[in-house]
Design brief:
Blueprint (H helix, E strand, L loop, with lengths): L3 H12 L25 H10 L2 H5 L18 H18 L4 H10 L8 H11 L6 H12 L10 H8 L10 H24 L10 H7 L3 H16 L9 H17 L4 H4 L2 H17 L9 H7 L1 H10 L3 H12 L8
Helix pairs in contact: 2-5, 4-5, 4-9, 4-11, 5-8, 5-9, 6-14, 8-9, 9-11, 9-12, 10-12, 14-16, 14-17, 15-16
Protein backbone atom coordinates (compact mmCIF):
# COMPACT_ATOMS: atom_id res chain seq x y z
CA UNK A 1 0.00 0.00 0.00
CA UNK A 2 1.37 3.43 -0.97
CA UNK A 3 2.33 5.89 1.73
CA UNK A 4 0.90 9.41 1.70
CA UNK A 5 4.30 10.69 0.50
CA UNK A 6 4.29 8.23 -2.40
CA UNK A 7 0.75 9.24 -3.33
CA UNK A 8 1.79 12.90 -3.37
CA UNK A 9 4.82 12.11 -5.49
CA UNK A 10 2.66 10.16 -7.89
CA UNK A 11 0.34 13.17 -8.26
CA UNK A 12 3.37 15.38 -8.89
CA UNK A 13 4.44 13.10 -11.71
CA UNK A 14 0.95 13.12 -13.21
CA UNK A 15 0.11 16.81 -12.89
CA UNK A 16 3.28 18.92 -12.89
CA UNK A 17 5.02 20.29 -15.95
CA UNK A 18 7.80 18.23 -17.55
CA UNK A 19 10.18 21.05 -16.56
CA UNK A 20 9.09 21.06 -12.90
CA UNK A 21 11.35 19.61 -10.23
CA UNK A 22 9.73 16.47 -8.85
CA UNK A 23 10.43 15.76 -5.20
CA UNK A 24 11.26 12.14 -6.01
CA UNK A 25 14.07 13.41 -8.25
CA UNK A 26 15.79 15.54 -5.62
CA UNK A 27 19.57 15.37 -5.60
CA UNK A 28 19.23 14.62 -1.93
CA UNK A 29 20.62 15.95 1.31
CA UNK A 30 24.16 16.43 2.54
CA UNK A 31 23.49 13.71 5.11
CA UNK A 32 21.23 10.84 3.98
CA UNK A 33 18.00 10.36 5.92
CA UNK A 34 15.11 7.93 5.89
CA UNK A 35 12.13 9.19 3.92
CA UNK A 36 9.10 10.50 5.80
CA UNK A 37 5.99 8.37 5.16
CA UNK A 38 3.76 11.48 5.07
CA UNK A 39 5.77 14.40 3.64
CA UNK A 40 7.86 14.74 0.50
CA UNK A 41 11.46 15.95 0.92
CA UNK A 42 10.49 19.52 -0.03
CA UNK A 43 7.53 19.53 2.38
CA UNK A 44 9.89 18.45 5.16
CA UNK A 45 12.18 21.34 4.25
CA UNK A 46 9.28 23.81 4.59
CA UNK A 47 8.61 22.55 8.11
CA UNK A 48 12.28 22.66 9.12
CA UNK A 49 12.56 26.27 8.01
CA UNK A 50 9.32 27.46 9.60
CA UNK A 51 10.22 25.88 12.95
CA UNK A 52 13.82 27.10 13.08
CA UNK A 53 15.05 29.94 15.28
CA UNK A 54 16.29 32.09 12.40
CA UNK A 55 12.83 32.14 10.84
CA UNK A 56 11.22 33.41 14.05
CA UNK A 57 13.80 36.18 14.33
CA UNK A 58 12.75 37.62 10.97
CA UNK A 59 9.76 39.32 12.62
CA UNK A 60 12.13 41.72 14.41
CA UNK A 61 14.48 42.47 11.52
CA UNK A 62 14.29 45.61 9.39
CA UNK A 63 13.01 45.50 5.84
CA UNK A 64 13.53 49.18 4.85
CA UNK A 65 12.51 51.43 7.74
CA UNK A 66 14.54 51.20 10.95
CA UNK A 67 12.32 50.70 14.00
CA UNK A 68 9.21 52.28 12.38
CA UNK A 69 6.43 53.57 14.58
CA UNK A 70 3.36 51.75 13.37
CA UNK A 71 2.20 48.18 13.00
CA UNK A 72 1.73 48.12 9.23
CA UNK A 73 5.28 48.57 7.97
CA UNK A 74 6.97 45.50 6.57
CA UNK A 75 9.53 43.49 8.47
CA UNK A 76 11.80 40.84 7.05
CA UNK A 77 9.17 38.28 8.10
CA UNK A 78 6.27 39.88 6.25
CA UNK A 79 8.51 40.38 3.22
CA UNK A 80 9.32 36.66 3.28
CA UNK A 81 5.65 35.72 3.42
CA UNK A 82 4.80 38.01 0.51
CA UNK A 83 7.63 36.54 -1.56
CA UNK A 84 6.28 33.08 -0.79
CA UNK A 85 2.78 33.96 -1.95
CA UNK A 86 3.93 35.60 -5.19
CA UNK A 87 6.37 32.80 -5.98
CA UNK A 88 3.77 30.10 -5.36
CA UNK A 89 1.29 31.86 -7.63
CA UNK A 90 3.87 31.92 -10.42
CA UNK A 91 4.74 28.28 -9.77
CA UNK A 92 1.08 27.25 -9.82
CA UNK A 93 0.49 29.11 -13.06
CA UNK A 94 3.36 27.23 -14.69
CA UNK A 95 2.59 23.84 -13.07
CA UNK A 96 5.86 23.88 -11.17
CA UNK A 97 6.49 22.36 -7.74
CA UNK A 98 4.85 24.67 -5.22
CA UNK A 99 6.40 22.90 -2.24
CA UNK A 100 9.93 23.45 -3.51
CA UNK A 101 9.06 27.04 -4.37
CA UNK A 102 7.67 27.70 -0.90
CA UNK A 103 10.66 26.17 0.86
CA UNK A 104 13.10 28.37 -1.06
CA UNK A 105 11.00 31.47 -0.49
CA UNK A 106 10.65 30.90 3.25
CA UNK A 107 14.39 30.33 3.63
CA UNK A 108 15.79 32.94 1.27
CA UNK A 109 16.41 35.72 3.82
CA UNK A 110 17.30 33.72 6.94
CA UNK A 111 20.81 35.16 6.86
CA UNK A 112 19.78 38.81 6.79
CA UNK A 113 21.41 41.08 9.33
CA UNK A 114 19.84 43.44 11.84
CA UNK A 115 18.97 46.85 10.36
CA UNK A 116 18.50 45.51 6.84
CA UNK A 117 21.01 46.18 4.11
CA UNK A 118 22.76 48.76 6.29
CA UNK A 119 23.87 45.94 8.55
CA UNK A 120 24.83 43.84 5.55
CA UNK A 121 27.02 46.61 4.13
CA UNK A 122 28.77 47.07 7.46
CA UNK A 123 29.57 43.37 7.86
CA UNK A 124 30.72 43.21 4.23
CA UNK A 125 33.11 46.06 5.00
CA UNK A 126 34.70 44.68 8.16
CA UNK A 127 34.43 40.90 7.72
CA UNK A 128 37.55 39.47 6.04
CA UNK A 129 36.41 37.98 2.76
CA UNK A 130 33.23 40.05 2.77
CA UNK A 131 29.64 39.25 3.67
CA UNK A 132 26.46 38.71 1.66
CA UNK A 133 23.10 37.88 3.16
CA UNK A 134 22.29 35.21 0.58
CA UNK A 135 25.50 33.34 1.40
CA UNK A 136 24.75 33.75 5.10
CA UNK A 137 21.25 32.34 4.53
CA UNK A 138 22.84 29.17 3.19
CA UNK A 139 25.24 29.11 6.15
CA UNK A 140 22.31 29.41 8.54
CA UNK A 141 20.57 26.33 7.17
CA UNK A 142 23.80 24.37 6.65
CA UNK A 143 25.79 25.22 9.75
CA UNK A 144 24.18 27.44 12.36
CA UNK A 145 20.71 26.06 12.99
CA UNK A 146 19.88 23.09 15.19
CA UNK A 147 22.80 23.60 17.58
CA UNK A 148 25.35 23.58 14.79
CA UNK A 149 24.03 20.56 12.91
CA UNK A 150 22.13 22.62 10.33
CA UNK A 151 18.75 21.75 8.86
CA UNK A 152 20.13 19.29 6.29
CA UNK A 153 17.91 20.64 3.52
CA UNK A 154 17.68 19.24 0.01
CA UNK A 155 20.12 20.39 -2.66
CA UNK A 156 17.39 22.15 -4.65
CA UNK A 157 16.24 24.29 -1.73
CA UNK A 158 19.82 25.19 -0.82
CA UNK A 159 20.58 26.13 -4.43
CA UNK A 160 17.48 28.33 -4.62
CA UNK A 161 18.38 30.11 -1.39
CA UNK A 162 21.94 31.00 -2.37
CA UNK A 163 20.92 32.05 -5.91
CA UNK A 164 17.91 34.16 -4.93
CA UNK A 165 19.35 37.60 -5.57
CA UNK A 166 22.79 37.77 -7.22
CA UNK A 167 25.08 35.60 -9.27
CA UNK A 168 23.88 32.72 -11.43
CA UNK A 169 20.23 31.82 -11.64
CA UNK A 170 18.99 28.85 -9.64
CA UNK A 171 19.14 25.59 -11.52
CA UNK A 172 15.44 24.90 -10.95
CA UNK A 173 12.64 26.99 -12.38
CA UNK A 174 11.15 27.03 -8.89
CA UNK A 175 14.26 28.80 -7.62
CA UNK A 176 14.07 31.26 -10.49
CA UNK A 177 10.44 31.96 -9.63
CA UNK A 178 11.50 32.92 -6.09
CA UNK A 179 14.21 35.25 -7.42
CA UNK A 180 11.69 37.12 -9.56
CA UNK A 181 9.07 37.09 -6.78
CA UNK A 182 11.60 38.64 -4.38
CA UNK A 183 12.11 41.56 -6.76
CA UNK A 184 8.40 42.00 -7.42
CA UNK A 185 7.61 41.86 -3.71
CA UNK A 186 10.20 44.24 -2.32
CA UNK A 187 9.85 46.93 -4.98
CA UNK A 188 6.09 47.06 -4.60
CA UNK A 189 5.74 46.73 -0.85
CA UNK A 190 8.54 49.23 -0.33
CA UNK A 191 6.60 51.69 -2.50
CA UNK A 192 3.57 51.12 -0.29
CA UNK A 193 5.57 51.61 2.90
CA UNK A 194 7.27 54.73 1.53
CA UNK A 195 3.87 56.19 0.64
CA UNK A 196 2.59 55.39 4.13
CA UNK A 197 5.63 57.05 5.67
CA UNK A 198 5.36 60.21 3.58
CA UNK A 199 8.75 59.61 1.96
CA UNK A 200 7.19 59.69 -1.51
CA UNK A 201 3.79 60.68 -2.88
CA UNK A 202 1.66 59.02 -5.57
CA UNK A 203 2.57 61.64 -8.18
CA UNK A 204 6.28 60.84 -7.67
CA UNK A 205 5.93 57.31 -9.05
CA UNK A 206 7.11 57.22 -12.70
CA UNK A 207 4.07 57.66 -14.93
CA UNK A 208 5.34 55.36 -17.68
CA UNK A 209 5.72 52.50 -15.21
CA UNK A 210 2.27 53.14 -13.73
CA UNK A 211 0.65 53.18 -17.16
CA UNK A 212 2.31 49.84 -17.94
CA UNK A 213 1.74 48.08 -14.61
CA UNK A 214 -1.08 49.92 -12.85
CA UNK A 215 -1.50 52.67 -10.31
CA UNK A 216 -2.04 50.59 -7.15
CA UNK A 217 -0.04 48.01 -5.25
CA UNK A 218 -2.35 45.16 -6.20
CA UNK A 219 -2.57 46.21 -9.86
CA UNK A 220 1.22 46.27 -10.21
CA UNK A 221 1.73 42.87 -8.61
CA UNK A 222 -1.10 41.30 -10.62
CA UNK A 223 0.31 42.68 -13.87
CA UNK A 224 3.82 41.43 -13.14
CA UNK A 225 2.73 37.99 -11.96
CA UNK A 226 0.35 37.44 -14.86
CA UNK A 227 3.03 38.56 -17.28
CA UNK A 228 5.65 36.26 -15.74
CA UNK A 229 3.33 33.26 -16.07
CA UNK A 230 2.33 34.10 -19.63
CA UNK A 231 5.81 35.04 -20.88
CA UNK A 232 7.59 32.08 -19.23
CA UNK A 233 5.34 29.45 -20.79
CA UNK A 234 7.45 26.99 -22.77
CA UNK A 235 10.73 28.66 -21.81
CA UNK A 236 13.65 27.27 -19.85
CA UNK A 237 13.75 30.26 -17.52
CA UNK A 238 11.36 32.45 -15.55
CA UNK A 239 11.21 35.94 -16.97
CA UNK A 240 9.11 39.01 -17.69
CA UNK A 241 8.23 40.39 -21.09
CA UNK A 242 10.52 43.23 -22.23
CA UNK A 243 7.80 45.82 -21.59
CA UNK A 244 7.05 44.67 -18.05
CA UNK A 245 10.72 44.18 -17.24
CA UNK A 246 11.48 47.73 -18.35
CA UNK A 247 8.67 49.11 -16.19
CA UNK A 248 9.82 47.07 -13.18
CA UNK A 249 13.40 48.26 -13.62
CA UNK A 250 12.13 51.85 -13.86
CA UNK A 251 10.39 51.40 -10.50
CA UNK A 252 13.54 49.85 -9.05
CA UNK A 253 15.69 52.78 -10.20
CA UNK A 254 13.11 55.20 -8.80
CA UNK A 255 13.15 53.45 -5.42
CA UNK A 256 16.94 53.52 -5.20
CA UNK A 257 17.01 57.20 -6.08
CA UNK A 258 14.06 58.31 -3.95
CA UNK A 259 13.75 55.90 -1.02
CA UNK A 260 16.69 53.57 -0.45
CA UNK A 261 19.09 56.52 -0.23
CA UNK A 262 16.63 59.04 1.22
CA UNK A 263 17.84 60.63 4.50
CA UNK A 264 14.25 60.73 5.77
CA UNK A 265 14.07 56.95 6.06
CA UNK A 266 17.79 56.16 6.04
CA UNK A 267 19.14 58.92 8.26
CA UNK A 268 19.61 56.60 11.26
CA UNK A 269 21.47 53.91 9.32
CA UNK A 270 24.86 55.42 10.07
CA UNK A 271 24.17 55.14 13.77
CA UNK A 272 23.06 51.53 13.39
CA UNK A 273 26.20 50.69 11.44
CA UNK A 274 28.47 52.35 14.00
CA UNK A 275 26.72 50.39 16.74
CA UNK A 276 27.38 47.09 14.95
CA UNK A 277 30.97 48.13 14.24
CA UNK A 278 31.58 48.85 17.93
CA UNK A 279 30.16 45.49 18.94
CA UNK A 280 32.27 43.68 16.35
CA UNK A 281 35.42 45.37 17.66
CA UNK A 282 34.39 44.65 21.26
CA UNK A 283 34.21 40.91 20.59
CA UNK A 284 37.46 41.02 18.64
CA UNK A 285 39.10 42.36 21.79
CA UNK A 286 37.31 39.86 24.03
CA UNK A 287 36.12 36.84 22.01
CA UNK A 288 35.66 34.87 25.23
CA UNK A 289 32.62 37.09 25.80
CA UNK A 290 30.82 35.47 22.87
CA UNK A 291 27.98 33.15 23.88
CA UNK A 292 28.87 29.51 24.37
CA UNK A 293 27.09 28.52 21.15
CA UNK A 294 29.67 30.46 19.14
CA UNK A 295 32.78 29.25 20.92
CA UNK A 296 32.85 26.05 18.88
CA UNK A 297 32.65 28.10 15.67
CA UNK A 298 35.44 30.29 16.99
CA UNK A 299 37.65 27.28 17.62
CA UNK A 300 36.94 25.73 14.22
CA UNK A 301 36.73 28.79 11.97
CA UNK A 302 38.25 31.71 13.84
CA UNK A 303 37.15 34.70 15.90
CA UNK A 304 35.88 36.85 13.02
CA UNK A 305 33.65 34.09 11.65
CA UNK A 306 32.08 33.49 15.07
CA UNK A 307 31.59 37.22 15.70
CA UNK A 308 30.05 37.72 12.28
CA UNK A 309 27.63 34.82 12.76
CA UNK A 310 26.60 36.16 16.16
CA UNK A 311 25.98 39.72 14.99
CA UNK A 312 24.34 38.72 11.71
CA UNK A 313 21.82 36.62 13.61
CA UNK A 314 20.75 39.43 15.92
CA UNK A 315 17.37 41.08 15.60
CA UNK A 316 17.19 44.87 15.65
CA UNK A 317 15.80 44.76 19.19
CA UNK A 318 18.44 42.38 20.49
CA UNK A 319 21.26 44.38 18.87
CA UNK A 320 20.06 47.52 20.63
CA UNK A 321 19.83 45.73 23.97
CA UNK A 322 23.25 44.11 23.55
CA UNK A 323 24.82 47.45 22.66
CA UNK A 324 23.22 49.01 25.73
CA UNK A 325 24.57 46.18 27.89
CA UNK A 326 28.10 46.48 26.50
CA UNK A 327 28.54 50.24 26.22
CA UNK A 328 26.01 52.14 28.35
CA UNK A 329 26.18 52.41 32.14
CA UNK A 330 23.51 50.50 33.97
CA UNK A 331 21.30 52.12 36.59
CA UNK A 332 22.60 51.68 40.11
CA UNK A 333 20.27 49.76 42.37
CA UNK A 334 20.44 48.84 46.03
CA UNK A 335 21.03 45.13 46.56
Amino acid sequence: MMTLREQTQQREEQTLSPVACLSQNTRGRQRPEEECPIRTPFQRDIDRIVYCNAFRRLKHKTQVFLQPEGDHYRTRMTHTLEVSRIARTIARGLSLNEDLTEAIALGHDLGHTPFGHAGERLLDEIMPGGFAHYQQSLRVVDRLEKNGDGLNLTWEVRNGIVCHTKGPQAETLEGQAVRLADLIAYINHDIQDALRGGVIFPMDIPLDASEELGFTHSERIAALVEDAIEFSQGKERICQSPEKEQALNELKDFMFDSVYTNPLCKGEEGKAQEMLRMMFEYFRRDPDALPEDFQEIRAAEGDDRAICDYIAGMTDVFALEKFKELFLPANWTVK
